[in-house]
Design a protein that fits this description.
By secondary structure, this protein is an alpha+beta fold. It has helices spanning 2-7, 33-43, and strands at 12-17, 20-27, 48-54, 58-66.
């Protein structure tokens, strides 16, 4: 994910814990619709993600992933139909 964010010109910080990783980054203003699409596609690879938009700190994103969840299986990350 950090490589995809870097390709969009967004620098990120990674925090690792036991069994999980968290990525945080500030989102530049303005961001074109095309770059928003790319950003959302990168975030969709995480187990959970969010956007914080505040007047004090600007816009920032975060994403977390369980290190044991296979990134190649969309249903495992909650992005598909599950029984």
């Amino acid at each position: 994910m950090t490589a995809r964010l870097a390709a969009l010109g967004i620098a990120s910080v990674v925090t690792r814990g036991k069994g999980w990783s968290r990525v945080e980054a500030h989102v530049p203003r303005p961001l074109s619709p095309e770059l928003w699409q790319e950003l959302l596609a990168a975030l969709a690879t995480a187990d959970a993600f969010g956007l914080v938009d505040s007047s004090a700190d600007g816009r920032s994103i975060w994403a977390e992933a369980n290190d044991k969840t296979p990134a190649a299986v969309p249903a495992a990350r909650g992005h598909g139909r599950q029984p």
